[in-house]
Input
Amino acid sequence: MYLPSHHEEKDLRVLHALIQTHPLGAWVTLDDDGFTANHIPFILDASRGQHGTLRAHVARANPVWQTINVAAASLVIFQGSQTYITPNWYPTKQLNGKVVPTWNYTVVHAHGKAKIIHDREWLLQTITDLTKQHESGRPAPWKVSDAPAEFIDRLVSAIVGIEIPITHIVGKWKVSQDEAMADRLGTAEALAKLGDANSLAMSGLVSSRVD
Amino acid sequence: MYLPSHHEEKDLRVLHALIQTHPLGAWVTLDDDGFTANHIPFILDASRGQHGTLRAHVARANPVWQTINVAAASLVIFQGSQTYITPNWYPTKQLNGKVVPTWNYTVVHAHGKAKIIHDREWLLQTITDLTKQHESGRPAPWKVSDAPAEFIDRLVSAIVGIEIPITHIVGKWKVSQDEAMADRLGTAEALAKLGDANSLAMSGLVSSRVD
Output
């Protein structure tokens, strides 16, 4: 990924937080035919390994666990907030007109060799942990043990585990850092006025780089 | 991508519509070191070629246009709505407990060999078309001609064009089709109640497959 230094987010805690709030990853794997991309929710063990470890599962019917070249690093793309930025939000437009549109986004690329896992205990633990992450905070959180044991047992037979110890991780926070300060403030304000969750999130991201 | 038939969206107009409403693509390219992913907004010429043609531009400073293996197909991933689905929304949970969480999402994979373009007219046309797409419908749409010509001229020198005639396109609409009808209706209703834009979009997608 092209990553100018002013767009690089280096704080591992910030990168991990994006993975945790946007867990549906695009998992790109090398195979004999080139590469393949699958979309699966990941859980992050933030403190396992130097950069954290990702866990997930795919359907056993998904050929990826057989076709993947496990000797090569795979890539998981986690996409955060993103939105079009109109130059109409820039005071510089009135000043001299030297402005153009852009697109803001945050994204994490996590690289590492994937291990394919068939161990039933590991699989049960992973679906339990995924459930805990997504059910916590909900009214009456659903638990894996709410389902009949033999039903879960059958499902575990139908999935295959993926574990990726992250060996390299980068974050691109393209959130107006290369614009004039007045234009950054104008962007943050205009996005805040739009008021929807995505615009508010991007407004906060733009503001967080204003100092 | 693993694509069970009940999750496949085959209507090219529906796939094109997702690209147009979610234009920030993850462009995955093969190179000597494996693959690279960059995130850029694409414009779709829906009627050029059998499956449409994608256009975009990258910074000239982005090495991708020099490192890409143009003889190999690249992939552009367009991600639509996506959300966690709790089994608490399923009436089947009360009936027999045989339910588990899942993740719903819509995604388009567009494959094709990328051409690298340096022609200034093409570049100017592409930024003009991108602008039109994103500014139309806004109050006082910004136009490329609003900026000084020499300023735009300098920017055009700093970008490189990408054109991808789509040779293969698939859509995965994982929107509860494999759940019991009552659970699909329960999911659509619960998402509608949440009321945010993303949940409403997914509620509509789940409902659209109920027949």
